[in-house]
Design brief:
About 45% of the residues are buried. Helix 4 packs across helix 14, helix 9 runs antiparallel to helix 10 and helix 13 packs across helix 14. The protein is an alpha+beta fold. The strands form 9 sheets. Strands 5-6-7-8-17-12-11-10 form an 8-stranded antiparallel sheet, covered by helices on one side. Strands 1, 2, 3, 4, 9, 13 and 16 form a 7-stranded antiparallel sheet that branches. A hairpin with a 4-residue loop joins strand 7 and strand 8. The protein contains 14 helices and 31 strands.
Length: about 625
Amino acid sequence: MRKKLKRQFEQRHKFMFDINRVPFSRRLSYLSVDERLAPTESGADRKQLALIRQVRTYGTDPEAKRDRMLAFRPIFNQESIPYRVDADPGRMRVQTSYGSFEVCFDGADVIRIRGQGLTVRFFTKMTTAEGAVDRLDGTYQINYFMHGEYLFVPIKGKIDFEAEWIWESRKSSDVLLDIEPDESGYFELAIHHAEHGAERYESYRPFEECAKESLDDYENWYSMYPPVPSKYEYIKRLSVYAIWICQIGPRGLITEPAILFNKPTESSCFSWHQVYHAMIMHNDVDMAVQTLMNLFAYQDEFGEIADLYDDKFNNIMATKPPFHGYGLLYMLERIGDSITVEHCKHMYKGLSKWYEWWMTLRDTDNDGVPQYNHGCESGNDFTDLMAKGVPTEAPDLISYLALLAEGLGKLASRMGMESEAAKWQGESERLINVLVNEFWNGKKFIARLSTTHEIIESDELEVYTPMMLGARLPEHIVKAMAKDLANPELYYTPYGLRSRPKQYENGQALPGMIAGFAQVKILPGLYYAGEKELARKMIAGFCDLGAERMPSFMFREPVPPAPPPSPNAGFPDGRGGPPASRGQGPGTAPADAPSEPPSRGGLMGLSALAAAMWLDLATFLEEIS
């Protein structure tokens, strides 16, 4: 026991990460710090640190999407100086040959910076209607058009501030702000962010207390997650961190905590993404249920939930698939003993309305089969299952709703509603019968146009999504699909399923795409349908690939190196960059900081969604090992 506790203590205090892989931030905050090319006061761009308010990616207003950042860097005698950065969930450290400084969060909306031996310079460009002002009390304020305001408060040391209002331009000049040490050689700064009305505190608690609060909050969040194979411990900690920083708190349109796609580049909370997160919060049932259902707080009177939300915008142009039944059944199997009747009532209310919305307002030909009305609604945006147009009746949507009906039946049974439970189970079986009898062509599943029922065939992996039904499908269908999924010329790779059959150019195989969301849906179903070794092998390969490159929403299939292979060669970078760090086993921390920022992995970097998908499969792998 002592050895185990010592090992856990050492892991906690060794966990560090590179802010080029995932930004420095904390749970419930809309702020983050990363490193990037950014403008300087000279007009040239240089790599430096950047404080960013979460920006909107989806929407129609270009100004709302504009990256409003405060760039900052260490200087000495008015010259920029080289620096090194490392971080843990509690603080970020910046080291130079002249001195150092640290950054932490004081709650969600205040950044604290303290240092010695150098100056930290902030610079930001301004646009029309934006301003900066000396508040004449030793503090300074910067106001942005769409992203709130920052108040700079010197706790120790002094601020030099350069900005003036330019009447002809209707804006402030670009802002230069330095925080300098006092006569003792030390400085400390608080940066408050607010939508409006930022005010200084009467007093500021110790920096160490703030840093410890963030670190403890991360550790508490980490404790929710079930184990993964031990070789993945570092990448598990990094993945949990990436999720932790993406839970944002109530603000604006967001009335309860929800989890972003990514930080800081994808500002929205997607309805179906929440399911991937809820599935693995095994040790906090309240958080798991809240996460599964959080966007149902905005469900309309007909039962629809929006595609995505952020604090200022929601998108109801389209929705996303009803993946919640899959997640609900997954949760009931693993943490069902902790799910109370009150939890069941909460889930049943929203999920039953969600099901009825699909089966009424999304069945325009009244044939009992639901439909997609938009190319992005399947989650596989612009899938060629909709190549002939919409509305489209698709096999994945029928499968989602069959599982949702089954899950609703289980909730009804737990609430003592046995007749309702039987009705839901009957509805689930009806949908599976429709799927098998009307959408299986003898070789694979097809889609069809609503009303005309014109057939739509596809070779996308999407048509194999019904494998999520596992043993609920007839054995001959399972065997036929498993044969295709095991074929390396079609979908099989050692790292998971590629999205389309292997393609060639001039006799050379082209790397396919391996999408995380497809692996989470299909591979556990393949396992439960009896193809255990095939599923286990691909799940392990996918987890290894995520640990080597970092988890990603989508990977480019690794291509074997040309002979003779280097004995040290790692996987090629997912975006064609340099190889991953060498000499490290999968899931281990890098031995030391690289001289150049490492790849963000895959195609979209370490998003909260990618982290959740990887954890879904890594925890499942531990279960079946």
